[in-house]
Amino acid sequence: MIYENKNLRKLKKKRKENYKDMRLGYMTNAFGPLVGDGAGVTSVKDIRYLTMGDDEQILKQITEVGFKSIEVLEGNLTKYSGDLAVLKDMLMKYDAELMSVCVGANFIYKDALEDEMYHMEAVAKAAKEVGATYIALCGGAIRGKGIQDGDYKLLGAGLDEARKVFDAYDLEASYHPHLGSMAESPDQIDKLFDVTNIAICPDLAHLAAGGGNPLEIVKKYYDRISFMHLKDLDDNGFAPLGTGRIDIVSILDYLKEKGYKGDYLVEIDGYAGDPLEACRVSYDFLKGKLF
Q: Xylose isomerase-like TIM barrel domain location, by residue (predicted)?
């Protein structure tokens, strides 16, 4: 692998100086329909994920369960770009923080990359002002004719460009292997991380659904982990922690044995049940395991 971890070590050192204890966050995207910003249909620079819903009500519910950090989709951050004080005041009201932001892009189309980086810059500026630590990058478009020779190099180069944007704002960018992207199966993940300097944000359920063994992938890429996404998987899809077939305890135990000092983000997106109940179940599952 060509990975050079000096930059990640620098960011992790700075993170440890700012946060002495492990942080546990929750992703807001399960609390409403996931859409793409309408302007993005005709303008690459405006493509972004967005969770539809009442942001304050969602934050209130999550913090009442016990989580004090959140991750949001990029659109749920940049919608406040005209007045970020609204979002900062909302977080302060519920004694919460924005730990991370999820950002999506195609990354492989050279003509579009400039405008995708324009979008990354807009996200970086807002994320920095609100106090985020992490950026989880999703994407890697699959062409209509399938993945082509050279697409992994294009994706790797695009991710490295995005990382540079976020590095400039002291934001820790990592790639989130994801269903429906070019890095879904274990061999695809390996192909990508052989050609990029980006860190990894492992999502246990996406790794399992992509045909991998989450524990083995976490072990393989341990030195590249930025922060962890926790979710479970059952026969119906993504599920609250402890209700599916992933051996989450073994993964947490391994990370503890390795001395992992990073943060965790729980994400139960795509769950057909009550999102608030999924939040509660997942929080209760982690009692005595992470806190």
A: 60-286
Token pair of 193 as six digits? 């991380």
- For 100, the 3-state DSSP assignment is strand
Confidence of residue 124 (pLDDT cuts 50, 70, 90): very high
CATH number of the domain within which 281 lies: 3.20.20.150
Question: 79-106 pLDDT, tens per residue?
Answer: 999 999 999 999 999 999 999 999 999 9
Q: What is the pTM of this model?
A: 0.93
- How far the first Cα of the chain sits from its last, in Å, is 35
- Contact yes or no for 141/154 (Cβ under 8 A): no
- The answer to whether 63 and 279 have CB atoms below 8 angstroms apart is no
Determine, yes or no, domain membership for 190. Answer: yes
Within a domain: 291: no
